[in-house]
Design a protein that fits this description.
Number of helices: 15
Bound molecules: nicotinamide-adenine-dinucleotide
CATH class of the largest domain: Alpha Beta
Protein name: Betaine-aldehyde dehydrogenase
CATH superfamily of the largest domain: Aldehyde Dehydrogenase, Chain A, domain 1
Distance between the termini: 80 Å
Number of strands: 22
Keywords: Oxidoreductase
Largest sheet: 7 strands, mixed
Pfam families: Aldedh (PF00171)
Helix content: 40-55%
Shape: globular
InterPro entries: Ald_DH/histidinol_DH, Ald_DH_C, Ald_DH_CS_CYS, Ald_DH_CS_GLU, Ald_DH_N, Aldehyde_DH_dom
Number of domains: 2
GO molecular function: oxidoreductase activity, acting on the aldehyde or oxo group of donors, NAD or NADP as acceptor
Radius of gyration: 23 Å
Length: 483
């Protein structure tokens, strides 16, 4: 074990200052690749949440007193600061979340910067409308900020998903309290520091680290918070919906998934296998839209299973700081146990383990890329989100059978279809129950396209102009033209 004496201490960001938590407690943050301590992180309390909410409320007027174009310039300055500091930011995210550095540099950091730049451009384009209701009145709408936002972020894409919430909320004139996942708070705190440098007024962006059951709960219950935007598990999401009822907060929930990636026999099997492997093994499968159910038409089933197994075996599992690493550890001992338990469940249910299924090494939370074949739709490994590098490959007969299986879980976040038949592709995209459907590709996201699902995958959408609606309230104004 490393010496922990000189570890950095991370404080809370409240009202433009980094401050100690009121309870004086800090948690030890671990590197999931080595299990070594990497930092001490402030454990916020409900009193800290209250302070942050007061700061965010006080900052609402000053933030909206700044001309919209100037607010956009501040966000753009922050995007530039992120770009200037991208190496440090990527290294911090990779270390904190155990994510392979090449992927963080290719996806997480550029996507966070792109999100910020995109919404910086929205600041002075959030318009109302003149609506001609009657001749004796001028009737129009304006869009006002929702107010104080509580943003609760998961650990799988701490920076990118955090920015999906921070950027549109700020663009709309809201102020925020961000609660990062307890185990991956470092990139959010770095964004907070750079936001102050970019000229964001104090109190506009507050960051309260700590436990979900303490800080998250307090945010959800606080009467001074107007909206909660949450990404995480369905069980916590359900509690949030109930907790937010007190003052009828607006709520957006981005929850889990058990996405079907459907491969027809007429597909380009090379491309399908390549994208299917990254669709489940990217970020060690800790992706809400992971293509964790691979549905394969019987004529090509054995071939796809074999080739997917080969690809899984060729993945370079290892140190996330090394550029050649394709897959890092899982985020925590708890997540590793969950995934290994599901491997046992799959074996017990009678699925055939093609490859993987074990912990790799004795230090760090590594699990081998795993493929199960002969999975049946009713099995738990086909119905429940594993959130790890485990592909369940399920055979199907025809379109109707594929749809029955694909649409047969409680989730509906994303789906993939692989086929050369354009008519079939359109029939499938129309019938698949999912917020996003990828055709002959898998896994892309972009801030310009809506993101989210329904059922146990939550409700509401992030990204694009939908997020502008999420963070604003329309107001109707009637001006009598007669005296
Ligand atoms: P989680 O629900 O345990 O935690 C998410 C966040 O909620 C964390 O910040 C946590 O501290 C906080 N939290 C925990 N208990 C809370 C409470 N009682 N009140 C308020 N906040 C609380 O989920 P996780 O383990 O961080 O992430 C994994 C889950 O997130 C998976 O189910 C995954 O599918 C989902 N996810 C969804 C998306 C999406 O876009 N739909 C993206 C990433 C992750």
């Amino acid at each position: 074990m490393e010496s922990t004496a000189d570890l950095k201490r991370y404080e809370l960001l409240i009202g433009g200052e980094f401050v100690a938590p009121s309870g004086g407690e800090y948690s030890t943050n671990l590197d999931p690749a080595t299990e070594n301590a990497i930092a001490y992180v402030a454990q916020g309390t409900s009193a800290d949440v209250d302070r942050a909410v007061q700061a965010a409320r006080a900052a609402l007027k000053p933030w909206n007193a700044i001309r919209a174009a100037e607010r956009g310039r501040i966000l753009m300055r922050l995007a530039e600061l992120l770009r200037e500091n991208q190496e440090e930011l990527a290294a911090l995210e990779s270390l904190d979340a155990g994510k392979p550095i090449a992927g963080v540099q290719r996806q997480d950091v550029p996507a966070a910067i792109d999100t910020l730049a995109y919404y910086a451009g929205w600041c002075d384009k959030i318009n109302g409308q003149v609506v001609p209701a009657r001749p004796d009145a001028l009737t129009y709408t304006v869009r006002e900020p929702v107010g104080v936002v509580g943003a609760i972020v998961p650990w799988n894409f701490p920076l990118m998903i955090g920015m999906w919430k921070i950027a549109p909320a700020l663009a709309c004139g809201c102020t925020l309290i961000v609660k990062p996942a307890e185990i991956t708070p470092l990139s959010a705190l770095m964004v907070g520091r750079l936001a102050l440098e970019a000229g964001l007024p104090p109190g506009v962006l507050n960051i309260v680290t700590g436990k979900g059951s303490v800080v998250g709960d307090a945010l959800v219950a606080h009467p001074g918070v107007d909206k909660i935007t949450f990404t995480g598990s369905p069980s916590v999401g359900r509690g949030i919906l109930q907790g937010a009822a007190g003052n009828f907060k607006r709520v957006t929930l981005e929850l889990g998934g058990k996405s079907a990636n459907v491969i027809f026999a007429d597909a380009n099997i090379d491309s399908a296998v390549r994208a299917t492997a990254s669709g489940i093994f990217f970020n060690a499968g800790q992706v809400c839209s992971a293509g964790s159910r691979v549905l394969v038409q019987r004529a090509v089933y054995d071939e796809v299973v074999e080739r997917l197994g080969q690809r899984a075996r060729s993945i370079k599992l290892g140190d996330p700081s090394q550029r050649e690493t394709n897959m890092g550890p899982l985020i925590s001992a708890k997540q590793m146990k969950t995934v290994l338990d599901y491997v046992d469940i799959g074996k017990g249910e009678g699925a055939s383990l093609v490859t993987g299924g074990k912990r790799s090494g004795e230090r760090g939370y590594y699990v081998e890329p795993t493929v199960f074949a002969n999975v049946e739709h009713e099995m738990r490994i086909s119905q429940e989100e594993i959130f790890g590098p485990v592909a369940s490959v399920i055979p199907f007969d025809d379109e109707a059978d594929a749809l029955r299986i694909a649409n047969g879980t409680a989730y509906s976040l994303a789906a993939g279809v692989w086929s050369a038949d354009i008519g079939r592709v359109h029939r499938m995209t129309a019938e698949l129950k999912a917020g996003t459907v990828w055709v002959n590709t898998y896994g892309y996201t972009d801030v310009r396209l809506p993101w989210g699902g329904s059922g146990d995958s939550g409700f509401g959408r992030e990204h694009g102009d939908v997020a502008i609606e999420n963070f604003t309230e329309p107001k109707a104004v009637w001006v009598a033209l007669t005296s």
